[in-house]
Amino acid sequence: MNRAKRKIEHIQHALATFDHGAHGFDDITFVHQSLPDVRIRDIQLHTALGELSLSSPFFINAMTGGGGEKTLEINKGLAEAAKHCRIAMAVGSQTSALKDDKQRKTFEIVRKVNKDGIIFANVGSEATVDDAKRAVDMIEADGLQIHLNVVQELVMPEGDRDFTGALLRIEQIVQNVQVPVIVKEVGFGMSKETAVRLQEAGVKIVDVGGFGGTNFARIENKRRSNVMAYFNDWGISTAASIVEVVQSSPSLTVIGSGGVRTALDAAKAIALGAAAVGMAGPLLRTLVEQGLEALIAFMEELHHDFTFIMGALGTKTIAELQRAPLVIRGDTHHWLTERGFD
Ligand code: FNR
């Protein structure tokens, strides 16, 4: 099957497949504060990913790589929403456009629509330094995501089977690319062991891409009568993964993503130590099924609700929210205890 057709199928299945919902956020409870001492209009949502300043902790995470006119339209819509809401946006994997110039316009549209916005390029861990530089240049990117998607590759018949050398290539890219590098998972979560190795390789920002949201094992298995069902529940929940990475690797800036669906999920991700939150599947679904205005309304509502939650907690800044008291119960508590976190 050609790459463009596969990408369209991914989108269709992502839209059709319900989230798994095992992100772990339901195990997190904020501790209510009766004297918050804040004015809602004083609450500030800006945050930082390394040297990058973001006016909102929410961003549109990577979706839709190559795939012709349809993905171009989707990228255009996502870019318009990002511009309107002044949020950052990652493009989907640019691998196809690195191989075939005709695919470039699918990505270039994002910069054309949103000239001054924060945009992240996206490549896989098979990328060389040259690939990474070309992906950044293609869209004048402000940052570069490198995705790690071993399980997704394994469940695809046409996927990679050789995963050697990824850490070395990542290290070389970090050393040679001029923009901040974000290493991200795609829905299987990141462990403390992985985070420590990335930190040692010079990575400064990781996106945990945790389990509990869009699930590529299920999407791929659905396309082909569940041949690898053993990967359907594979992964580290987003809540547990954020704690693993934050607590094991203090020099990393952490992005919480994977199953973030509400302002409350996002606030919990940040209170666990994330600096920003990425959302993918639900934004695509809203854009494709309900249109651009609905996507913008959804993002505005998220910001509104997020601000109210910060108000209730008495936190005026993202840095204060990162320290908000919370209680961890259930499976997430059990996981973290087993993994040596208090
Ligand atoms: C993705 N995702 C993704 N990630 C990446 O780094 N490069 C890519 O090309 C893609 N492509 C892609 C296509 C589609 C249709 C979806 C829904 C997702 C993964 C995405 O960035 C994110 O990590 C996961 O989707 C988990 O987040 P959500 O969807 O649960 O918010």
From TrEMBL:
| Keyword set, alphabetical order | Cytoplasm, Flavoprotein, FMN, Isomerase, Isoprene biosynthesis, Magnesium, Metal-binding, NADP
| Enzyme Commission no | 5.3.3.2
Which positions are annotated as binding Mg(2+)? 153
State the Pfam families in the record.
FMN_dh
So where does FMN get bound? Answer: 62-64, 93, 122, 184, 214, 259-261, 280-281
Q: Which reaction is this enzyme known to catalyze?
A: isopentenyl diphosphate = dimethylallyl diphosphate
Q: Which residues form the FMN-dependent dehydrogenase domain?
A: 169-324
Q: Write out the residues that bind substrate.
A: 6-7, 152
Q: Which CDD domains match?
A: IDI-2_FMN
Q: Which GO terms describe its molecular function?
A: FMN binding; isopentenyl-diphosphate delta-isomerase activity; magnesium ion binding; NADPH binding; oxidoreductase activity
| A single Gene Ontology CC term | cytoplasm
Q: Which domain of life is it from?
A: Bacteria
Q: Which SMART domains match?
A: IMPDH
Question: Does the entry feature the keyword Cytoplasm, yes or no?
Answer: yes
Q: What class of enzyme is it?
A: isomerase
Which cofactor names does the annotation list? NADPH; FMN; Mg(2+)
BP GO terms, sorted: isoprenoid biosynthetic process
Compartments reported by the entry: Cytoplasm
Family in the record? Belongs to the IPP isomerase type 2 family.
Q: Which NCBIfam families match?
A: IPP_isom_2
Q: What does this protein do?
A: Involved in the biosynthesis of isoprenoids. Catalyzes the 1,3-allylic rearrangement of the homoallylic substrate isopentenyl (IPP) to its allylic isomer, dimethylallyl diphosphate (DMAPP).
Q: How does it assemble?
A: Homooctamer. Dimer of tetramers.
Name the PANTHER family on file.
Answer: ISOPENTENYL-DIPHOSPHATE DELTA-ISOMERASE
> Per its record, how is this protein called by name?
Isopentenyl-diphosphate delta-isomerase
